[in-house]
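User: Watch each token:
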Amino acid sequence: MLDLFLSAFVTLFVVIDPPGCAPIYAGLVKGAPGRVAVAMAARASVIAALILVTFALFGEDLLGALHIELNSFRIAGGIMLFVIAMDMVFEKRTQRREERAEKVREDHVEDVSVFPMAMPMIAGPGSIATIMLLTARAHGTAETLVVLGALGAVLVLTFVALAAAGPLMRLLGARVEAVITRLLGVLLAALAAQYVIDGVKAVLA
């Protein structure tokens, strides 16, 4: 059981990539108060957990009943992420947040917990496919629970990474943060393009 847990944990950790999600999250929540950013990180982690557990237990039946292929998630998620990436590169999102921070209350800060963090950044096509594959390979209830336990551990680490990302980025200063945000926007655009390319390739194959 320990080997199964470690194998599932490492696989999910690499696919979800908490260290990679953290700086992107910091860029998305720039201007939000610390406690609001932490609350959104917690909400994103819980929503992602619900999505992944649902697909782990009922994914194949659900997609089959709706006649939806996983590649549809990959293409749609890639397009949505590309739009977010463009805002990051050209600092449109940053400008909107700075203006909003000066004239609106905390409860009006844009909520990124559902989109794009929970879906598709954390519970994306890759992680959905991975958890479905891991549970399909599990034999019996006990092994399924071990896989879900590994998923829970990765999501806890993801929450910690997201919650700590904002303060760390603020320590770097506005100029450094702007450079990093634009760089991450380019990387996010590349990731989005790769999602679309992989989805199209799979459909045409």
Remarks:
- The mean pLDDT is 82.
